[in-house]
Amino acid sequence: MVEGDHTLGTVSDKIGDLALKKKTPFFWFVGFGLAFLVAQLLMVSIGYLLVTGIGIFGTNQPVGWAFPIINFVWWIGIGHAGTLISAILLLLNQKWRTSINRFAEAMTLFAVACAAIFPVIHTGRPWLAAYWLFPYPNTMGIWPQFRSPLIWDVFAVSTYATISLLFWYVGLIPDLATLRDRAKNKYFKFIYGTLSWGWRGSSRHWHRYEIAYLLLAGISTPLVLSVHSIVSFDFSVSQIPGWHTTFFPPYFVAGAVYAGFAMVLILCIPLRRWYGMKDFITDTHLHYMGKVMLATGLIVFYAYIMEAYFGWYSSSQYEWFMIKNRIWTGPYWMFYWFLILCNGISIQLLWFKRFRESTFWLFVVSIIVSIGMWLERFVIIVTSLHRDFLPSSWAMYSPTIWDWTLYIGTIGMFFSLVFLFVRFLPIISIFEVRTLLPEANVHGHQQDFEENVVEVEYTYEKTDPPNKESEA
Amino acid sequence: MDKKLYGLMAEFDSATELVDAARAVREAGYTKTDGFSPFPIHEMDEALGIKRSILPVLVFFGGITGLLLGVSLQVFVHYIDYPLNIGGRPYLSWISFVPPSFELTILLAGFTAVFGMLFLNGLPRPYHPVFNVPRFALATREKFFLLIESADDKYDYDETRAFLQGLNPQEVFDVDE
After folding, report:
1. ipTM of the prediction
2. Do A216 and B114 touch (CB under 8 A)?
């Protein structure tokens, strides 16, 4: 999993020096500058929204939910890959997660931060959100409605953001201690020292640390599955044809992981190239991510097919009308087919080694998938709403310029945060990469496979003639 | 001796040496010991005789607290404080109370795991005597250290120092208080 000739020391230097020693590369200033400029669109849009009200959006009857929720679901979905990589792959003992988990988790945090903007501001009166969303005793004597999926969403997303932050921060503590001990600049030394909480790598601390890390992974696993399930409840608990289906939770979770891995690839392909991290984020990592994308993409594609089938098989005229309207008779049919092209067809390329092992094609497919996942939410939300039960209420939806600026602004904010992260924090988990090195194996044992090693030794003694000494 | 020492620390080059030394130190009867390494070494738990942490139990009760909090909050709101009849549905519609209760369970369990770990580890602790050894900065990079505290019953400066020297370390340091 680690290529090149690395020792404990060189690993620490190579990753740590990005934050400490290396001159900030020119592209960083260009990238951060651009992203930060784009993020100003967000500021302007929010400012204008608060002054004017939600009339600036294209959202109107019958399409009462549009860009804000599309973007919310899109961002939340992207976040899911980070937790999947850090928690589920840790429990499954997948060693390849080690060098990508740090920035995948950072990506989760930033994506959730972008997502959270939409539900808070979409009413145009975020200062009232406190008592709509959070149960606290107030002078009006009212409470949030806990039977509503929207309140479930509040609990799911805020828990998700908190736990992701904790997970990420706990992973950072030993690495911040490494940076503290290497920093020459006394201000940086102080900041990293404060953030690392005086970590000194004691064996007794590591013991509890590993337990805590594993427990966090254990509780994050059901959490990440619950979050997008609950997001899908926002739709499936309602009775709108096209939303009211029981298979939304698995469909949404698979879509979330799909979109998330696409975003991880979009971030890590340039990152490993510009920062020369190919020894740690190897081609093997990219192939694996390509395979996860293929698998989840196929689940999503299957869900599209089943969705159409359910519409027909339900024999409900509203369901079947919605499907027909979505796919060929309605005004948005082109979006549907563009979505199928992006999410269903383009992914088929990854069956072939030639594409799966080419960084260029992985990058291209990832961008296409990101667009496709956005279209998926657009199709689900807009085509289900714009044909109401009464033809007299039918209408078309189109976003306004402010819908777009708000959305593009969050993309700017996301990339600004990513650029700040790669500048000031170790982008790869240093201490976990150390455990991958052969030096980390006590008496040549693989740490995480103690039981297996015992078994191997047992069979080793029984083989005849005995195996050669292992290189480790 | 003039100044009081916190303990003696030996530096090693590899994880294997550290584990072997820790085992020897433990067998020699020292109990107030600690190892320092740039990454977790599972063998150290056994070599130093580290007892399994109580953390999982705390996390379990943290989770239970979250669950009870979630259930009681929603029952209080919808059954006791402000019952609201919506479409004739029961006030105790417990199924819809599941998601928030679940999320609160996870939230409090997570808080307990992280802050419990830091608390049991005695962190944050910006100053610690081991930082007085200049070479100790390498403990977060590539070197391995073994500490015997002067508070140990078996501790005797000359004897312990000779003992640590016998474990074949790179160097043995006095750790100032």
Report:
1. 0.88
2. yes
